[in-house]
Structures are given as structure tokens and as C-alpha cells.
Amino acid sequence: MIHNLRMRTLLGGCALLALAGCGADDVASPGEGVIVVPTPTPTPTPTPTPTPTPTPGSPAADCPDGFTNAGVIANLRNCSITGRINSDLNIPKRDGTIYSLVGRVDVGTDIGGDGAAAGGKGVTLSIDPGVVVFGSGGLDFLVVNRGSKINAVGTPTQPIVFTGRRNVEGTATDDSQALWGGVVLLGRAPISACIGGATGGAADCQSQFEGTADALFGGANATDSSGALQYVQIRYAGFQLAPDKEINGLTLAGVGSGTTLDHIQVHNSSDDGVEMFGGRANLKYLVFTGNDDDNIDSDQGYQGFVQFAIVAQRAGGQSGDTILEVDSNGNEDSLPRTFVRLSNFTFLHRSTLASSINAMLFRGGADYTAVNGVVVSPRTCLDIDETGGTTTRGANAGLQDQGPPVFKSVVMQCGDGAYQDDGNVSTATIKSIFEVSGANNDPDFTSSLTDFIDGANELAVPAFNAATLGSFFTTTDYIGAVKNASDTWYQGWTCDSSTLDFGSGASCTAIPTL
């Protein structure tokens, strides 16, 4: 902190022989019979002393206002945040400084689905490009409550990194997981699973985030904004708060379409990469590497658009579940119904575990269209548990009635066969759905991918014009997430691991230089 020092002024004698003034023009030249009083040389005024700038590789001297000095970790000043943030706060990028979450850190106080909850207060947490924030254990996680925002906007060369303490200390490996909780955004957009008997999609339809007592989400504001996550890495997250109640790498619960979500990597989460509980969030340019449960999971009436997704499980086959899990059984007629449009994805499903039978699992009441996709799996590629009901969408007027998922320009290379029948829908029916629903689908494809980059076989498949699904989508002339070596949207802001090497020059097991 810069301290202002009181300035001292020294006054020279100016009045001998009743001089009229103190300026140089009023002083007689030598030899004119006037006594000359020399002007004293002033004592130099001390300049304010700033907080010393740390030399490279040394910790900052102290923490910014609003943070607690928690000592030094990995030769960096650890500035911690705990409890509830109830006024706007910026996490600045400073040399020799890292930031930590201690326990559950809440951004703002819930304003309710209707915006009128007693005691509610919306605030904004801003994070500068290049900042690293860590948690020390599974109970350290970040919650952005309804009515509040996070503006974590990195750059292609200075991503914002959320990670675990062991990663900071240098002891994390390519197999590390569950080192801290994760990032949770709670919004006021419609959901279908309500507590207290409310109607799905209504302002008073709200649900409670898994494993917590007072983290509520849901409402009727489809365009609600929870801020922005751009050029962000979320590493080594995921934690079980209670049986079957886990924190994901990134949780979007009731998050509205006013939220900006792009260029996000979730690496080695012990649960899902991202899970959407209802809401209307749209996502673009996603990288999911080494996550141990599902990678893109949607439930509770999520309706949104997703484009450009690279997803890869860890090599070796001993980790991971599905790549894509859609909805859940038993809510086939719940409204609002899940409605998703997914385009340009490359799924590398590597798990050979008995619990990980297929790459894509469609449960429950979902209206889902997937286009321009490449799926590679040693197991089966597709399981559909529900082929559609007869209930109309009610509150979601204008959207077609529920039916089976639709695929267009999706190709699959599947080691155990394309389709899985786990007692719900026969493989013959799944085959009919996949092969009849749209043109240019191929369940017996031979992949020519170089890692995650399209090869000649992928480039030979005619692409579907995703822009016909909505203005959110970019039209491409290729399937998959990455066309060729010149298509480098994933590069620079991601971290490299044994799962995938993005050529970013930054290892997921190390943190950026601070």
C-alpha cells in the first residue's frame, strides 16, 4: 500500500532591507550597494514510498484491500477470500500474488426467483486476466447467487485459472482429481423440478443446489445474466457434499441466456465437466479433458445451444463415464422439457469400465438435436432410454412436441457396436432413430482424426448448416470441433496434459508464472 508522507516546506528569508518581493527580478546585482540575501537551496522533498514491487519469483509484500493475508504458498503471497461477498469486488492481477477460497464463498445474497427475496443483494465479482484462484479441499468452492454476477474474463494468452492447492504446490499429477470444490452459478431462468409444489417455469419454481441448504436457483427470467466466463480453466475440481450430491467442475443451475460462456476448459473433475440444471445458458468453444463422470450433462428442463466442443477422457480406459448424458428417467412429461441443439463436437470416449457402457446416453424427456459430430469409443456409442411422449410443451409454446433425439452429419466409430440396449429401448429402435433421423449419419465410421483434429475421412462428410438451428450458431463446412491444423480456437488459453496436448505450452500440472 502506498503511504502519503507529509511534505515539508522550507521558507527562505526574503525581507532584509524591506525588499518588495522574493522573485529574482527583485534582487540587486552585486556591486549596486544592496545587500543580497542568497536564496537557500531547498531540502529535497521525499517522494512517497510505494509498496515494493516484488522481484520475479518472490511473493508480494501484502494483499489488496478486501483480502486476508494468508501467508506464502509456493513463493507467492496467498490472499484469501472467505464467507459472503456483499459488495462489488475485483480480484486484481498482481506480481507474486495468488488467491484462495476458504470454505464456501458466496457472491451476493440470493434475491429470489422474482427478485424480491428479503435481504437479497446482487453484487459483481470481477477477476482480472491471468489470475489464479485455488481451493485447498472439497469444501472450498465458489457460489454466485441469484441476482449476482461473476465477470471472469481472461484472454487467449492470459486465461483465468481455478485450481486446487496441490496444483499450486506442484504435487498434482495427470491423474489428480477432487482437489477442491468447483464453480457454481445460480440463476433465475426457468427449471422443471420445483420444491414446494410450484409450476415448472414459474417465478416461484425453484430448486436447491445439490448438497447445500440455502443455494437456490430457478425463476421465470429466461434472459437472466450471471455474468461471464471467458478464457477460463477449471482444474481438478469435483467433490461429493453428500451421497449422490456432488459439485461439478462447472455447475450452471437456472442460468439464463444473458450469461456469456465461451472458451472454457474443465480438466480432471471427479464429477461432471459441466452440468446444466434447467436454465437457458448457451455455450461455445469448450474443452473437457480427463473428467471422471459425464462431461456435458443436462437436466431439469435445460434449454440451450452448444457449439464447438472437444471432449476427451483420460487414456488407459480406467476413468470416466459417458461423454454426453441427457436428462433423467421419470420426468418424461415434466415442463419445461429439455430442449438442446448441439453442433460441432468431437467426443473421444476412452473408458472401458463396466459402469461406462456408452459414449452418449439419452434418458427421460429431452428434445435434442445433435449435428456435425464425431464420436470414437471402444464401447458402444449411443443409448436411448426414451423415444418420446405425447404431452405438448405447454409453457414452451412454439417448440415442437417431445420426440426422439435427432442426428444430422454425426459419425461414430464404436468398438462394441454402435447401439446399447440396457432394457429400455431396443437396439433396432435406436438404429432406426440414428440412421433415419437425418442425412449423412454413419454408425460404422472409420476415424482419421489426428488427436482431435479432422482427417480426410471426417472432411469428406457433408456438414449440416447449424445456423438453421438458431442465430447463435456459426455455419461450418466441416463436422467435428476442429477442421484442420489452421483451426486453432483451442490454443493458448488451454493447458496440456497426457489426455490431450493442445500445443499451448502450458502444462495442467503447473500454474502460470505470477
Describe the protein.
The chain is mainly β and 514 residues long. The protein has helices at residues 165-169, 427-437, 456-459, and strands at 68-73, 76-85, 89-91, 97-107, 124-127, 132-135, 141-144, 149-153, 160-164, 183-186, 207-208, 216-217, 227-235, 239-242, 245-247, 250-253, 260-267, 274-277, 283-289, 296-299, 303-312, 324-326, 338-348, 358-362, 366-377, 380-384, 406-414. The strands form three sheets. The protein has a 23-stranded mixed β-sheet that branches. Mean pLDDT is 87; it is low at 1-52 and 390-400.
Roughly how much helix do the residues carry, as a percent range?
under 10%
Summing up helix and strand content along with how strands pair, one would put the structural category as: mainly beta
Overall radius of gyration: 29 Å
Q: Strand tally, please? A: 27
Give the SSE string: EEEEEEEEEHEEEEEEEEEEEEEEEEEEHH
Largest β-sheet summary:
23 strands, mixed
Q: Segments where pLDDT lies below 50 for 5+ residues?
A: 1-52, 390-400
Count of DSSP helices?
A: 3
Q: Any idea what the shape is?
A: globular
What distance lies between the first and last C-alpha atoms, to the nearest angstrom?
19 Å
Which strand-content bin applies to the residues? 25-35%
Mean pLDDT: 87
